[in-house]
Write a structure and sequence with these properties.
mainly alpha
Length: about 150
């Protein structure tokens, strides 16, 4: 129950921050953190709820958040063989990958929606995503309650 409250509070704060920095996903580092803790069920349900929130509030076609979260999972599974997936450097790699993917995905999504796009803005949002992601992951790692770190994965 404590984990549910902690992640709900995290989601409220992350969504509130997204209001001030539009185009940057502040929920994604939470998904990586849960996957790293081997709490796949928790990560799955958080991703489902957060995808519904993000896609429901967006003006683009459905799918951007899904692709982002699947990318995080794929990087984790693929990176397990080559990297220490619990490290800050791996979080930086994930942030960089999402930062590069951001303008590409938004370009495709705006094309599908037949909308004009501000490509310079998408690139800047991607850079911000790449910088913010590992820093937020580190903040989550430091602020996550000790007693929740060692509970059984559910």
């Amino acid at each position: 129950m404590l984990a549910l409250l902690w992640w709900a509070g995290f989601a409220v704060v992350a969504i509130w921050i997204q209001r001030f920095v539009p185009g940057v996903d502040f929920l994604a580092p939470g998904i990586l953190f849960c996957i790293q803790r081997e709490k796949m069920t928790q990560a799955f349900w958080m991703a489902v709820v957060w995808v519904l929130i993000q896609e429901g509030c967006a003006t683009l076609p459905f799918g951007y958040a899904i692709i982002s979260y699947v990318t995080i999972y794929a990087l984790y599974r693929g990176g397990m063989m080559f990297f220490d997936v619990q490290s800050f450097m791996f979080a930086t790699l994930c942030g960089a990958a999402l930062g590069v993917l951001h303008p590409l995905l938004l370009g495709v999504m705006t094309m599908l929606a037949d909308m004009g796009g501000a490509h310079d803005r998408y690139i800047m949002e991607g850079i911000i995503q790449g910088v913010v992601f590992p820093l937020e992951w580190l903040a989550i790692r430091l602020l996550y309650p000790e007693r929740l770190k060692y509970e059984s994965p559910v």
